[in-house]
Amino acid sequence: MHETYAKSILSQKNGINVYRGCTHGCIYCDSRSEVYGMPHAFDDVEVKINAPELLKSALNRRKSPCMVGMGSMSDPYNPIEAELRLTRKTLEAVYDCRCGITLITKSARVLDDLDLLSKINARSKCVIQMTVTTADDELCRKIEPNVSVTSERAEALYRLKEAGIPTVVWFCPILPFINDTEENTLGVLDICEKASVKGVVYFGAGLTLRDGNREYFYKQLDLSFPSLKEKYIKTYGKRYVVSSPYAARLDELFYSLCKKSGIMCDNGRIFAYLSEYEGYGKQLSVF
Ligand code: SF4
């Protein structure tokens, strides 16, 4: 890892990434794509050490509080977070500025900040987004090797539920010939139902591949799924959108399960919910 001083931190849509790059090693990671122009190796995580102060001053310049979104390009609970606590300090800035937070992670380490997330939720709004691509821990170790396995993520979702913190699951990507099975869809949706998640983000049964992430993905296929790379090349060539041959059936199953469980599955509605700041003073209004 290496440290930098960022010049600005908050995007136009109130998004923030305190780390750039990631060591979780997901084989399909889109953030590796060349289009993002990362000037350093992806696994050499850039640490924006002044992120909390920058965020605080950006939020203080705003006319009103808002929802802050964390982790669109890098997991806020990279292993280095255990030592640096930069995400935590950033959450403290969010709390001090009376804003809400939504963050996306694959790590059960999010529970290290349960106290603070609960405080933000009690006063304004906190929604944790967790990616769950497979119900099978063994497969999870192959496709997302350096982060909590699914059963640990599920436990984290259950703990968040107990703490009254709403959650959203990202059920994507679906990798053709790897996790594109009915059994997997049933397993992931079962976790979502048990965790009473608010919504599941789903982009259909497939993934996207482009320069940068395609090469990495293929390299990892060779290591963990012998002969699958050749099948991908033959089936998809250099296509950007790589859909499962079972997409129609899996999509139908996914939407019918969500409907049955009352889980929100319209991505537009979910994103609107995530970005909606619902006001400050929930806790105060109790008294
Ligand atoms: S956690 Fe996210 S950013 Fe990190 S490797 Fe996986 S997909 Fe990429």
Characterization of the model:
- Helix 1 (51-61) packs parallel to helix 3 and helix 3 packs parallel to helix 4.
- The protein is globular and about 55 Å long.
- The chain has one domain: TIM Barrel.
- The termini are far apart.
- 40% of the residues lie in helices and 14% in strands.
- The protein has helices at 51-61, 81-84, 86-96, 114-123, 137-143, 150-162, 182-194, 213-224, 228-236, 247-261, 267-275; strands spanning 2-4, 15-16, 19-20, 46-48, 67-70, 100-105, 126-131, 167-170, 199-201, 206-208, 241-243.
- It is of the alpha/beta class.
- Bound molecules: iron/sulfur cluster.
- Iron/sulfur cluster is lined by residues 22, 24-26, 29, 31, 74-75, 106.
Please name the defining characteristics of this protein.
binds iron/sulfur cluster, 287 residues, TIM Barrel, alpha/beta, 11 strands, globular, six-stranded parallel beta sheet, 11 helices, three-stranded mixed beta sheet, 40% helix
